Amino acid sequence: MPSWFDLATDKKQRQQNVIPKEWLITPPPASTLNVIGIPETCGLLTPQELVITNEDVDGLLKKLASGEWTAVAVTTAFYKRAIIAQQLVNCLTEIFVERALARAAELDEAFKRTGKVVGPLHGLPISLKDQLCIKGLETTMGYVSWIGKYAEKNAVLVDILEECGAVPFVRTNVPQTLMWPETSNNIFGRTTNPHNRSLTSGGSSGGEGALVALRGSPMGVGSDIGGSVRIPSACCGVYGLRPSYGRVPYGGALNSLEGQDSILSVFGPITGSISGLKAFMEAVIKAKPWLKDPLAVRKKWDEDEYQLKDRDNGRKLCFAIMWDDGVCVPHPPITRALKRVQATLTNAGHNVITWYPIEHKRLGDLTRYIWEAGASEDFMVTASETGEPIISTMVPDSNEATVAPFRPKKGGLTAYQLWQFQKEKTDLRALYLQHWNSTVASTGTGRPVDAIICPAAPYPATPHGHFRYTNYTTVWNALDYTASIFPVTTVDPAIDVKQPRENFIDAFDKQVHEMYQPEVFRNAPVCLQVVGRTLDEEGVIAMTEIVDAALKTTNKRL
Amino acid sequence: MPSWFDLATDKKQRQQNVIPKEWLITPPPASTLNVIGIPETCGLLTPQELVITNEDVDGLLKKLASGEWTAVAVTTAFYKRAIIAQQLVNCLTEIFVERALARAAELDEAFKRTGKVVGPLHGLPISLKDQLCIKGLETTMGYVSWIGKYAEKNAVLVDILEECGAVPFVRTNVPQTLMWPETSNNIFGRTTNPHNRSLTSGGSSGGEGALVALRGSPMGVGSDIGGSVRIPSACCGVYGLRPSYGRVPYGGALNSLEGQDSILSVFGPITGSISGLKAFMEAVIKAKPWLKDPLAVRKKWDEDEYQLKDRDNGRKLCFAIMWDDGVCVPHPPITRALKRVQATLTNAGHNVITWYPIEHKRLGDLTRYIWEAGASEDFMVTASETGEPIISTMVPDSNEATVAPFRPKKGGLTAYQLWQFQKEKTDLRALYLQHWNSTVASTGTGRPVDAIICPAAPYPATPHGHFRYTNYTTVWNALDYTASIFPVTTVDPAIDVKQPRENFIDAFDKQVHEMYQPEVFRNAPVCLQVVGRTLDEEGVIAMTEIVDAALKTTNKRL
Q1: Residue A87: helix, strand or coil by DSSP?
Q2: Annotation-wise, does A178 bind a ligand?
Q3: Catalytic site residues (chains A, B) (predicted)?
């Protein structure tokens, strides 16, 4: 049997071989950190392909549905741009050009024959995180041990997206084990951030984040158990949605920690356009995933909730801003973004109050205890087939001495011990719900807070190996709250100067503070979260659209 | 500190003390097995109280809403009848007459003042399983160790029922630990079956089943993790519903195996009238329990699903009958009931095909492994406060040598081992869903099977200590399918003769067969289940109503 290293090398070579030679570009030198503009300037894309790939999801779907653009033309354009992205930030895993173009041609043929779209996502290329099995393709999920395992059928979500008329065309990079907020593994290596390649693209859906940011895909699917849709969305400056457990089907996809039934991973969209969030969720839910996946929640798309019927039709909402989580204070550009959103929403006629976090540290700790209960054994069993090393730190060239945030070393827990942590988590969910309800006294709308607005992390994308604190996202997984990511600004060292602080919560807070060096974070996107209640996807999408529109209006006025 | 025995004796005495002396009847001798008619004949109830307590839920709600009957009159009538039931079958735990009557008087006052009902369950007395905390009352759940623990607040469901205008008035008996299909504990002793007191009332909601069967309550709330609503409903000949996880709020209630997040206990109605199922579910769901309990599913009452809009409006359905589960063949009266339903539904114009069970034994085993993972420690930790013995068999006067179906003796599992069983269960859920979908080929309706009809157990209510096999109900908990219970007939030794069998699946099947002795089971109700998909409460209720109406029409014709 070949060594794990040989297996990985062969797989990577096979990936390289399927890239059409004529789509290779002259890559910029490694010293070029910001590569976000290179797809526009490298010369591979035609002017029409640039128009197509710069269009938002709503526009793409309209032009595809009207027949103005064919599925083949749109797929080809995004395909070429994805291959450019791959050469810039190493974001892809499986590349299946011919299959995708054949599917696009089928769609065009059907459209020509019937004059109608196949489904609500007709002709839209969609990239998929490297967990979503496609019949006949390998899914390695960053494990060398899974090289050579070809799927016998599609994941349920892949079937549904295809029924909706979408065109899956590439899969995207992940960290080995998925349980990491950056993206690197023993097969494909590391994905970098297109805004600044010395920074992480985030993880675990970091391939998606980087690809979508470069507009190499109009819409991708990531997964999120502790922030894995939201962290890369935030790091790369795009939109993302973490739905509640079961709203989007997970069946037939690969995963880590399978059988862990308490804090579930969920799939959600990562997209360059605000309209992509609704397009994805409405299409998937209207396909009735509960008839195909036993864990999918039988809950129809609720247009009334999307119209915010019970919330003054969205005219006067009350948002609560969480300035910090009580564990560590965010870096200056994050706080600047929060202030901008506060001013923008106030100007738009909404109420804005402060969100007081409760028990965030404990919720984060409980989440880690629950995952750690059996994670170490899970990772080892998976990796043992080839003996590939478990990557225990994401620090490049590390001697592995650095202790990482989620690499459980110990032997795990008994089931009874696990149950005690799970019980405590449920109790804290009840406490948090009461806390939310109690805000009715201070919103001025007669309702409790409509949504929380908070950082996605205490920092923008960090240098590789330094994204260590995920609790600004993970706490909402523990509570199963719906949460989206929207972009606000980017780090500008001229504005986002380092501000001295006298008082710190503790040594960790100080450490986070000291990480901030404006020049290091230059150009890093700054995104925030909109957080709503459990299974309130429709409401959260609508409120994210309201916030996003308000920000765009303000930006135009400025 | 007093011994556990003294604590239990004192608690039982306190219960006895709150029963109004004038409501004591002369109890029938122990040799009187069938006591179902005694409330009518004992002389305690006035003719009007008999009319009230014999009315169904729909009629009660209408007469209360029109002001024809007051809440005080209705509560008093059911109260008296509940106290009669207690003297016959020992079904109650907490008795709080004054509190309930005060609440009823408040409702009458509000109705008089406003001319309107307080809510959809205005004035309806509701009994509650002894897990549903009520502020200021003890909840022992069959544990001596919990005597003296007074609740600081209501369970969420109690709050919602009160908001809906219902009048909680008694709590009902359970087995110690809840994890048992019969009803006995060290405090209150054993609840018996009013149709035949030598038989079990079932469990764990056995107090509810017996009370509702005697019409001592028009509607009760039970809980169901493996059949605990359905088994007592079936044993006692009343209606019951096991909703899917989270459809009815569980927050603030006590429970066993807390923190076990994989196969969840759920609350559901147990009622003497078919109309009670919808009345309860619609009222609770319309109260938006997800705003009060983080585990309650945000899913509105779906009137279209109740109207079976996507299922030919219920005109021509396809039911699949599961004659046995592949593990043990039901007793003759159960099979007779299935045949009657088959003929009735066919006559009513529906299609009826056979349901082929798959993996039922493995699903039952996995369920037990998941519960056993930490159950032993859970029980021991709870009981250790007073040192009361864990009841390891329900056989009366047993020397404890008999091995019982769910009394885990061993040390439990590691979290990683638990995850492997949970993963396998999820895989089997996916397989079962495919199996269900595949029936589209044989239903003749263009849809997969609309509902399964199957036994609730291989036997009717058994002699005490002999209800050992719960997998006819438990398998649907593992799959999280919605399942109701409806009555069909009762055991008639003249018809339900013992039938010789030559071939047996295995020794266990033979043992179940040999248990059947017509005379022993005389008068035992025979009920069946209607089983639908996950979170299809509206559809299952509607289809149960269709089956029930067809049976009633047939019975009238005969």
Answers
A1: helix
A2: yes
A3: 129 (charge relay system), 204 (charge relay system), 228 (acyl-ester intermediate)
Neighbours of B163 (CB within 10 A): 16
Instruction: Name the B residues in 414-453 with CB < 8 Å from any A CB.
Output: 414-424, 426, 429-430, 432-433, 437
Q: Tokens 């827990």 label which residue?
A: A413
Phi, psi angles (nearest 5°) of residue B261: -105, 10
Token representation of residue A228: 């894995």
* Interface residue A261 vs chain B (CB under 8 A): yes
Nearest to A294 among B257, B294, B433 (CB): B433
Give the strand pairing for A451-455 and A318-321: parallel
The DSSP bridge pattern shows strands B184-185 and B189-190 to be antiparallel
CB-based contacts of A182: which residues, under 8 Å, 6+ apart? Answer: A175, A190, A200, A201, A202, A203, A206, A394, A464, A465, A467
pLDDT at A97: 85
The string of pLDDT tens digits covering residues A235-286 is: 999 999 999 999 999 999 999 999 999 999 999 999 999 999 999 999 999 9
pLDDT for B411 equals 76
pLDDT digits 0-9 by tens, B291-320: 999 999 999 999 999 999 999 999 999 999
Query: Which residue on chain A is closest to B412 by alpha carbon?
Result: A415
Residues forming a β-bridge with A230: none
Q: Which helix (H) or strand (E) holds B276?
A: helix B275-286
- Given a contact cutoff of 8 angstroms between Cβ atoms, the answer to whether B489 and B340 are in contact is yes
Domains along chain A with CATH numbers: 4-22+46-304 (3.90.1300.10), 306-358+440-557 (3.90.1300.10)
Any binding-site annotation on A321? no
Q: How many CB atoms are closer than 10 A to CB A311?
A: 19
Contact criterion met (CB < 8 Å) for A437 and B534: no
The ipTM is 0.97
Any catalytic annotation for residue B204? yes
Residue A402: pLDDT band (50, 70, 90) is very low
